[in-house]
Structures are given as structure tokens and as C-alpha cells.
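Exercise 7. Given the components listed, write out the predicted structure of the assembled complex. Treat all entries as one system.
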Amino acid sequence: MSSPALSVRNLIVSVERPAGRFRAVDEISFEVDAGSSLGIVGESGSGKTLALRALMSLLPSAARVESGTVELGDESLPHAGREARRARRGRMGMVFQDPLSALDPVQTVGAQVAEVPRRIAGFSRRRAWERAVELLGLVGVPDPAARARAYPHELSGGLRQRAAIAIAIAAEPEVLLCDEPTTALDVTVQAQILELIDDLRARLGLAVVFVSHDLAVVRQICPELAVMYAGRVVESGRTERVLERPGHPYTLGLRGAVVDLDEPLGPPRPIPGALPDIAALPTGCAFHPRCFLATAVCLATPPALVEIALPGVSGQTACFHYEQLFAQTT
Amino acid sequence: MTAGPLIDAGAAQASGPLLEVDAVSVVFRVHDGALVALDSVSLELRPRETVGLVGESGCGKTTLARCIVGLQRPDSGAVRLDGAPLGQRRSARERRAVQIVFQDPYSSLNPRLSVRRTLRELLSVHGLSSREGLEARCRELIELVGLPPEALDGYPGGFSGGQRQRIAIARALAVEPRLLLADEPTSALDVSVQAAVLDLFAEIRSRLGVSVLFISHNLAAVRHLCERVLVMYLGQVVESGTREAIFSDPRHPYTRALLAAAPRIHPVASAPLPLRGEAPSAIHRPAGCSFHLRCPRAEPICSIEEPRLEPVAGEPARRAACHFRDDPAPRA
Amino acid sequence: MSGALLTAPQLELEGARMPSFWRRARRSPTLLAGCTITGLIVLAAILAPILSPDRPDQQDLFHILSGFTWQHPLGTDELGRDELSRLLYAARTDLKVGALAVVFPFCFGTLMGTVAGYYGGLVDSIVMRVVDVVIAFPFYVLVIGLVFVVGPGERGIYVAFAVADWVVYARTIRASTLIVREADYVAAARTGGIGDLRILARHVLPNTITQAIVYVMNDIVLVIVAVVTLGYLGLGVQPPTPDWGAMISDGQEFLTTRWTLSTIPGIAVVLTGLGLSLIGDGLADVLRPR
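Answer.
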């Protein structure tokens, strides 16, 4: 069994605040195989965006990786600096939330896509442009030869995001990181882009990491799911299982709070309490002040992410009382 | 202390709808030509009713909201409140009747005014409280939206998105409106917080008797909150009906496409293909039906004759702007 | 109507209360440094009669161009006048002129910029065209020209700045106003039935004026430098009223013999400029809403 395309172990990212340095990502670990896709779900303050940016070595200046390993295949990647960028070149691509700010407004989209094969594979100008048109066609841009000559502001949101995706996959990377790529798009366009990402994943054998706050969206295209809260992974496993039989009270709460088209009408149940700020995390389990299962041990020790030891259930959870949750949903 | 909203119960329940939008059109002149933001849009809202307005970007829902609230002048057609025309120049009473909650909780509150001052400004401008009563009324409002009285001392910068939305709602309710427009009020909020804000709207309708026009692209939220739904596309209302009708048996291909495209936690086994392409430009609109270029049901008549918003056979309360409203299934 | 509709999650109110202006001001090192420097200079100017050894126009022809002595700590000029006294009294003049000259440009420029930005249309076009015309003139050409016409001296400076300096404020404020005008909270105020005047006063101006306030600090420096320059050209504050510009100009001939005559007032200008700039920067930080 070959090693996974992307492997992250005990990653810690800290952030500078007026009150000091705090952990925004607190020892997260996960693996993604080639051709597979992992969804990471969380709300504000969960650390999901910083985690993704740390993988890509794109952290803002106030943040830095404290420790942990990020491996592509067997190769461990440096976290910061020039070597970090060089190591990721051509092997990792990223798609951002807002295509308008992810694209350079003064260059045509074709030029931006072409820049990748030129810089990384040393293509000639002409060949790079041809490749750019090819890529734009691959991502579903209609009439790519003409569209390549357009500027980002002349394109619709959906087309811009397609162009951004073309740039991300232009170097034929092994890993594609997606940071809420459809949040800013209309519902029908979102559906198209999700289909595109899934299609590219299958065709190009990409390992996809898909960060989102939307459970339904990750359900569409990610067979594996990790749920983050206050900088830690609180639950992970097959998406179907996690959403249908949550093994962590936060996941359960999230499921109850989300309105869904198919579920019977009834008031959504908000999770009591508020999302914590990393500078003021509760002791022990960060979720305990809002948790209906909390006991003394939850205040004292942060639970580790452990394998769920129940027959017929796979995955991990970071909760001392997960058996009670599963007992309710047998 | 005022005893609740100033609903003129007599007048409201007596006749007709609370709000009427009657064939309103708005056209913006841009350098390429004319951008039709709203094309003869009509709708009605009754007292104590929650109506959802669904559509994607460019459909005109925000322009419509602005017309209703008086921030945009219609180029033709009229907006009426209790039967009387509502122009851009409004009396204080008219102003109070219709209020709006905006999408972005971060720009909808003046960062330099404390919550108390934001509320008091509205209360004093409309003379809604005596000097002594101002503070009490502010407390009432802030508690109404579920925030503690200490929140009055705070400034917007210190609150989270969900809390700011609550403050924005308190502001809107301060003048005791009869109609509350909510323009994507939960889109910028965290998922777990959205639920609470949606509930707040439901309570506003049921306990205060305020009608709510809920504009959103989030179909699931609209389904939870709204008894009636209107679907807009490219400046026109393409379908309208009750919640049950729209969500279980949509009659316009665009509505069907929207429902098919919306992601769900339990994926539908046989999901139809996503809609191809994107909305055409609002400046160069297609001939005939504005949707026909992307429509899986399109037939030759669709590019020639523009369908009107007409009732579906046997269901007078339901309307769809499609030649095949009575026979929506795509041909094999 | 009592009772909450739905209780919101626990409120962490520490962050919501905004520390008062003074507390935030105390925490900004830039602002404190600027206030200290400027404060000392202003204090020296106010206490000029007490701190000066002599009257500034007192000539002592027996002790011209003297070096630092107990009697004349900073020396004397070519007419035997005490440098320290002249420096302190000149501070009074220059600071006063600097502060007063910016009042009209600030007020008028802010008013024009607000009106142009908020109402747009014809008003905006007219105001902006006037601004364009004024800006087209090189600043000093305009100022010198106006002083020439009105006559040298303080009055000329006030008039010249009134005409030439307001345009920057107008442009800055207009730009901010265009942005603030579109903010949802302004739309909410309009929907709420609040009148234009009140909206401008409560919602627009407080959010646009910080830029102008910060600029005012730098503008005062500009005025002082301009007064110095005009004084250098003989068009500024007229003798016998001392001002730093005239002192620098008069001391030119003696650069090789008594270089302190020009340099010391020059340093005074620099320090004043530094102090005011620091206040400007500090204010920019402190006035920004969290």
C-alpha cells in the first residue's frame, strides 16, 4: 500500500494577538489518498482556513507553524520560507473563496493560466498559451480561445472560479486545496463547480482537501470528513457515517442547527453558548461549556482523538462520552 | 411603555394586502445599453405573512427590496401600502411601516455609535418615547432580540456577526414596523448561528405580528420560514405559490433547477444534471422567455413568445411564467 | 411586551465596550511622543515672556553676533538682538499663524467635500471642477501670488491659504464620503426616516472626518514651512515681529561665521514638524474604530 498523497501529523499553527501567542490549529492530523477527497468542516475560529494555508505555506505574517509534519508522498515539506514554496511548486495547487481577488485584475485570464507552464515547465510563450486554452477548456469554460483573452472583471463569478481552478491544476499537482471555493457563488453555479472539482479529482487523480462551513456541500463531493472546533479535529471518518451517526456532540449540534431541504419542517435547534475565541479557550474540552454530555472529566482534560471502538462504526472522535451518542442513534 | 407594535389592526385586517408591488420596473442606463433590473414585477404581502423571495445574483431581488423600502425609485409601476401609493418621499408614518435588515452585519451598524445611541436616534426622531421612556424602550428592544441590557453600552466592533444582526433587527423593530424586509440576513453568519437568527424572525412574525419579506438564496432557510415563496430570474418573477407547492411540485424549470442544484445532507439518488451555463446578461436579454437558452424543457415557442405569469391549471393560488406550467416534466 | 424572544448565546461584553478616547490615547506611543514634543514647544511659546532674557526687538549694538554667553544663551544676531528671545517669540508667531491658517481650509474643504460626495450630480461636478482649477496651480505660485496681491504679512497668509489649501480637504473628504454614503448603516438611517442633515452629522461626518483631522496636523506643518518660506522671501510676517523664516533668512549671510543664527530656528521648525506629524499619526491610530 503506497503512502497517501498528503499526510499531515500533529500540525500546530500559532497566531499573534495583542494578548499573546495562541494556538489556532492545535495538533491536527489527517491523510488523503490520491484520487480521494477529504472535507474539513468548521465555523469561525475552528482553524480550518489557517490549517489549509499552513499546508500551502501561505500563512499571514501574524501566524506561523510551530510544529508538525506535512508530507507529500514520502517527502516531508519545510514549513516556511523559500524552500517551502519551491518544494510545493507544481505539486500543490490551491483554490480560494473569492475568485475576483484571487485573480490579477490587470492580466488576462489566459496569461495567468499560461504563466504556470511557462514558469514551472519552461514552455515557450506560444506553447504555454495553447496549454492555457486547453486547460480553460478542461475546466469547462465555453469558447476558451476567446475567453482566454478576457480580463477577470469581464467574466462572471463562475467563469472566474473556473479560471482560478485552471491555474491551480495547470502544473498537474498531486494535491488540490480548496478554501470554500463555492461560498461566494450562486447555487446553480456552485453545483457546476462542485461537479467540476469532483470530475478533475477523478480524471487527474488529485488528492483534494475541501474546506467549507457547509455540511451539505461537503456531502456532495467528499467521501471523508473531518470536523474542526477551536483548532482541533473533534471527529473524522466517512462523511456518510459522521453526518448520519455523529460521534461528537458538536457534530450532532451542527447537524441539528442546519436547515436542510429534505428534513421535516421544525425549528432548527441552535447550539447553546457561543463559539470560543482562541485567546480564551475553556479548560479541558473546548466544547464542554456548550455540551449536554459534559462531566467533570471534560473540564479537566482535553480529550484525544481516538478510534471509535464500536462494532460497525468507523472513524475517530475526541469525546469521552461518545458511546452515549451512538447509543441514542442505534 | 408602549404596548407593542402600532399595528393599526382595524385598517390592516379590514381590506386587501399590506403591501402591493404593482408592475414595478427599474432600468439602469449603463454604457452598453439598458440594464433591466426589474421587469414589471408584482407581488402582494398580507399582514402577518412571511413571504420568501428566492433568486440568484442578478435576479433583481435586492433592487426590489430597495424599491419597497424607498431607496430606489421605480421607473414604472407603483408600490402601495394599505392601498395608498408609497413613493420615495415618505411621511414619517410611512417610513416607520417598512424596515429592512441588511445582509452584512459588519457594515450595517455605524461603528462610532453605541448600540444605545443607535436605537435612541430612531426613537427620538419619530417621537416614539418620552425622555424618561427612552431608556426603558431601548432595554425592551434589546431584550426582545435576546441580548442582555449591558449590550446597550457596547459598540458594534465588539460584537460577533450573529449579535450584530440581532442589534440590526432591534433597530428595525424600534419604529414598530408592519413589514420587515430581510435581505440575506443569515448569509454572512456561521452555520450554528443562522439557526438562532432564523428563529428570531419566526418569533417576530408570530409574536409581534410583523409581516416578513425574506430574501435569500438559501432555499432551505426560505422553506423553514416562509409560507409563500416567489422565485425570481433576470428581473422577473417566474414562479409563485405556497411553500408546499413550490418545494414539492415546482412548475417552472428554473425553480426545478434551483432545487436540484441545492446541496443536501442526504443526497438524492438520481440527481439531475446541474444547469448548464450561466444567467445571460441583463442588458442583452434573450428573445421570448428569458430562461429558454438554459432550459431543459425548451421548445421552439419559448424563443418566440414570452410566457406570462399565470395560474397553474386547477391551482389559482399558484403561478408560473412558463408555457409548460401544466406539464413541466422534461421530454425524454 | 416583556420577555426575550430567544436568548442569544452568552455575551462576552469585555470587547464590546469601547475604551474611552483618553485611554486609547494614552496607549499610543506615537501620540504621546508627538504631544510631548509639541507640548513643550507650545509651552515654551506661551512662557516666552518669562523665559526670554530680553525683549525680542531689543538691539544691543555693542554685542552683535556674539556666541553663547550667560547673558545671551543662544547668541545675538547682527543687530545685537537676543536669539533665544527671538526664537521663543517667533514660536508664538509661527504657531499662531499655523493654527489659524488651517481653520478655514479645514472647515470649508470638509463642507465642500461632504456636500459634493453625498449629493453627487451637478453639485459634485461644480465643486470638483473648482477643485481641479485650484489644484492645477502649483501651490507656492498660488500662495506667493496671493500674498503679493493682498500684501505681505499675516493677513496675506490667511487669505492665501484660505484660497489654496481647502482643496485637499475637499478631495479627501469627498472620497471618504463616497464610500460611507454607500454603507448599509446610512441606508438604514435613511430607511428609518432620519433626515439628511442628521445623517450627515451623525453618520457620515464622524466616519469621514478622521482623515481630515489627521491631515490637519500635517497641514499645520505645511503652513509653518510656507510661512518660513515666505518669510525667507520677505513676504511673510513683517519685521519687527520675529518669525523663524525671517530669522533663517537674516542669518544666511553669517553661515560661515555664526551658523547658529540660521540653524537653530531651522531646528525649531523641524522639531515642530516632527511633533505635529507624530500627533497626526497617533491620532490616525487612535481614532480608528475597532
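Discussion: Confidence is low (pLDDT under 50) at residues 1-13 of chain B. The longest strand of chain B covers residues 33-45.
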